[in-house]
Each structure stands twice: as structure tokens, then as C-alpha cells.
């Protein structure tokens, strides 16, 4: 399957990320975990033989679809057992806490005295009703909640990939295999169908880990490239039945990403802070994941945004701080959340290449890292986004000064990377005025596409202003829309301030500098500035 993740690439060898493409085109695989699926760890449905008997015995079970008849209510003995069993009560509390994206309320019941547990529906379930809330499985009615957002198009493209993969499997005779015949005899349904392939894709998107198992390479200090990275080789995709139950914590660092330790020949994952007995442990599904990343790959509302609205505190719009705001600055509202709000943009929606040489440079860059996405956030476009737009709009003379030769082709990858490094610094007021004007026009257009305002979304999430508090899948959709609107609002303010400075005679050398002349995107002593493999310009 080729469903691809929205999450940025990892640039650290041997680091794992949850939030990955199932088979990324031209990039290492990465993966992720959805609370909707983690709340129902390992399906016991016979249509999914990958679920092992051992896992079913030690984990809650759940049929992924009501395939034959509406779900029957738990028997009186099961209800009685569940109500008096302390373990079932604790399990039910856990499920309710971590199943907020499920469209159907489910409760744990013990299947037999001293035996395993299952999940029973608390409300009527119609035949064919999808019990998983992962956005990949949403139908047209739920996709309509994303009106105005590019996320609707991303999900539609992923669903089209699922349909294509299903057709390929059917043409190859997947349902004629002995395994499929046994499944048909036992259940009366086909093993491979659009619904089962979609379910499998959602599981891999939301629960799998990817690990770089290649041996570490010695650092040679090769500076011929700027801002590029090369992976050791294809990542290994794996389902990890214990670790995939860990919740995502935005504050967790790289130590909380599963990584393969070559010296130990083992995979390790470390706690990012002390935990008291009984406290919910967490890992990092990936560094710098935006609410949109969490939504697309995990079906998850950003935990800090959820905590803020649960406490009645609205996440406030970011001030026009610009790129010189201090790294790690605590904004008002949910701590650190505004730093993660991001609106990803297809570059072709913002500006077309100025000329054929600009187009060749951008095609060469795509040969290095794959399809580009620009990033807009509350502090404006990041350095990599500005550099990409500068490459699209630079004059022929500016391209030559950057090192992009007149006869360079899209196969000159080294030259393209060096040219992008040179273009990280602004060259002329005319080019900066053009790219900032294009950004301002796009942001205004993108914000106007949403049918509702950020204020209205915030009121619905918090249950304020006379609006009932949203819950379930619609809350998930509105939460990510609010994040995108915050990103656009902040970016609009920042770009406007840059245009005003430019119109006021500010030199291009000082245009993006802060009080301490530190450009946004510069890192510490070990940083490399704009990273073409990380975040804003990563492959999708």
C-alpha cells in the first residue's frame, strides 16, 4: 500500500518516528499511532488473521466492523461481571479516556470468569458501521467537516490509493489464496475488499514503527551539500504490540522515539521525564508534529490543545512575533502549542517559477528530497520556505551568483543543493517583495476558503458562547481546522510586518533579523540552518 504520511522526515540515523508513509516515494518509511486504534489494541475479528492468538489473550478485543448483524448487547452475566470486576472498571476508564475519536461508545466486559476481555457496544450499531475513527476511513459526510482545508484533499488522495491497492490485490488473485478461502468459509465474506484494505492501511499508518537497521556510518565532514541528508537505506516497518499503546507527548524528545541500538542489537525507548506509579506513560510519535500531522496519521487531537479546551482556556492567536522570537518561548494558551500549529502548502499554489532556469532548479531539488511542501506557522514562513520561494522567483543573475550554472540540469543535484544554500540569504529587495507579496495573497485566499471563523471553532471546542461542546470525530476535525487558522492568522501578521519594513527602507540584510540579529531557522552551535529533509520541505 502507498498511503503516505504527513509527518516530516527524520534526519537522525537510527531514529524511529511514528507517523510514516506505508511506502514513501523516495523517502525512508516512518510510522505513527492513533488513539482510536490504540484504544482497541489488536482486533479479534477473524477477517484479520494477522492478529495473533497470544495478543488477543492479553489485550482487549474488538471487531473492526459489524459484518453480520447489529451488535448484540452484553449478556446479563457479562454486565454483572464487568460491573463488579475492578480490573474491568479500570479498563473501561482507560478506554473512555483514550477513545474520544471513536464514533461508537464501547465498554469492556469479561468474556468468561477469569478469562479475557472484549468490548461491547453501548449503543445500537448498524451492519457495516465502521467502528474505527481514523480519518482514513471517513466517508463523504465526515470529510465535509474539513471544508476549506487542504486536509480534505490529502485524505481523498489516500483513499484513492487504498482503492487502487485493493484493485491490484484483487487482480493478482488475493481472494483465491488458501488463506482467503478459509476466511470465506469461516465468515462468508471476502478477505480482501476496499474496507479491509482501508483498515489495514489505517493500522499501519497509526500504529507501526519504522527503524533504521543499517549500520552506522562514520562522519566524514562532507560539506559539499547544504542542508541535505542521506538515509542509510530503507527503514524497517514493524508493529510493536507493547510500545504502540504509549500516548504521544509533544514535550517528549528524541530519547522517547524508538531507536535501534547497534551496540546492544536491540531497540530502546527511554522516558523523557520521571513517572510515578500509576501515572500514564508517553512516548514521542515524532519531533515537531503539528496538529495536522497528528490528525492525518493518528486520528488524534493534539493533547495540549485538548487539555487547554478541557480546562476552559482557549488557545489564543500568536502575536506577530516574527522569526526572531526566542526558541522555546512559552506562548499564551496551551504551552508550546502555537509553535506546532502549521499550514502546509503546495508551492504551486503560492507562485509559479519565474523562468525555465528556476523550474529546472526546483526539479533538481525534488530529485534530492521528493515533493516539497511549504510551511506557514504563527511566526510566519520558516527559513526553508522563504528559500524555496526565493529559488522560484530569483532573477537569472541571482541564480548565477548562487552558483546555479546556466547549463545546469535537473541531474546536477550537488549544484542544486549548493545553490539552495546560497539562496538561504536574501539577494535583492525586488525578489523579497515579490515572494512576500505572493505569500500575503495566498494566505488571504486560503483563510477565505474556510466557511467558519477561528472564533466560532474555538467556541465549539470549548462549549462557550452558547455553543454545545463538540465531542467525537467532529471535534477532531474542528480542532485541526482551528490549528490551521491560527497558523494562517499568525503568518499573515508576520508577512505584513515584513512588507511594511521593506516598504520603510529596511535593507534585505536586516529584513528578517530580530533584536539580536538572529534569523529564524538558525539553530545552535551544532545547527545547520534550513534542513531540506526536515519539516517544511519533507516528502509526503
Automatic annotation (TrEMBL):
It comes from the Eukaryota. Residues 370-488 form the Rubisco LSMT substrate-binding domain. Residues 1-31, 45-86, 514-540 are annotated as: Disordered. Coiled coil: none annotated. Residues 66-81 have a biased composition (Low complexity). Residues 530-540 have a biased composition (Gly residues). SUPFAM superfamilies: RuBisCo LSMT C-terminal, substrate-binding domain, SET domain. Residues 514-529 have a biased composition (Acidic residues). One of its GO terms (biological process) is methylation. The keyword Electron transport does not apply. Keywords: Methyltransferase, S-adenosyl-L-methionine, Transferase. Gene3D superfamilies: Rubisco LSMT, substrate-binding domain, set domain protein methyltransferase, domain 1. One of its GO terms (molecular function) is protein-lysine N-methyltransferase activity. Residues 1-10 have a biased composition (Polar residues). Pfam families: Rubis-subs-bind. This is Rubisco LSMT substrate-binding domain-containing protein.
